[in-house]
Model the fold of this input.
Amino acid sequence: MSVRVGVVLFPGSNCEQDVVEAVGMLGGVGEILWHGDSTINGVDAVVVPGGFAHGDYLRPGAIARFSPIMSAVADFANDGGPVVGICNGFQVLTEAGLLPGALQKNRGLKFLCGPSTLRVETSDTVFTDGIDPGAELSIPINHFEGNYTCSPETLAQLRDEDRVVFRYVDNPNGSVDDIAGICSRGRNVVGLMPHPERAMLEVLGSVDGRRLFTSLLASVGRVRAA
Amino acid sequence: MCDDEAMTFDVKIEVRLRAGVADPEGSTIERSLPALGFDGVTGVHVGKCIRFTVEATDEGAARAEVEDMCSRFLTNPVIEDAEITVTAAAPA
Done:
């Protein structure tokens, strides 16, 4: 049976179809989940995609966290279900309290859109399983508020618990400790600013995103087998 | 007026980035001002202002409610501070 990946659609999301396509390319089934519904329809994994959920009003992610679906996503995450937040989805997960810290405006004012090189720091997450730590992936970024920040205590905790999942090789936005992505204590919730769904075809310049979505689909298989 | 009667308060919340948080908008404005001949301007910061009215039994209760709104929704305490002003609304 194909792995079913729910992709949350908020008003203002704009990367959800890319994620559905990415999952489909690897043999999974991507299903759009409407933000106003209060169920995730029994999917095996959830992706909160990029865009501008609710227009980024107040702050990116600040309103999205009140969408009815987010309670279901939080319950799923707290039960160990795989949840990945990409770009605006990462911002939504921090505002929802599923991941610590916040994303502030990029150092240097510029909206950043282009390739970035990420170093995988841990293979012990639902999104990096099977990828050796130290591996470098080319994954594009596309953000204005991607500068990760958190309290010194949170940063120490993330490091001590091996929860920094990705670091930028050449920090483009000022993120503390070059952080591009982190995971939850349970390692089943991962947030990152770069867009792996845009690195699925040679014609797009990189296929490294496939390795991450392959990990996500495989992690579901492991959960099922357990 | 009876003590437990609800009063209306004007609320103004100034949301500011905490010290040390990147404020590229503020620094860009600061760098642009000299082009118009405004020299000697430093410390430009850009925030936002949220205004509304709220009903409460007294000013302390109004302020407590607004502080709760700020910590749970209107600001992100990781990167933002709020300065709250509460004043009794003029009678309609």
